[in-house]
User: What shape does this take?
Amino acid sequence: MEGPIAGYIIKSKKGLYLTRHLYWHLTPIENAHVFSPLETQEIIKRSLSEDWKTIVYSILPAVSIDGTIVAISGETTVASMIPSCL
Assistant: This one.
């Protein structure tokens, strides 16, 4: 049994969310994976340097318990984060 996991869910431009399997698989929000802050940072860096720019749109802080998302906070677009990632 997992404890609470705090991190981020990652939203695509199509309004779907990244899963744990091969980051670019997309799913409705209830099946989204909560990525750790470090994983999220890596995904954003990749999205800025590869053709992922067409996929990754925003991140939302989230908490999951036993794989179920129980809390989601405000959305931040990746475009607004670019200066801090470079």
Summary: The chain has a mean pLDDT of 81.
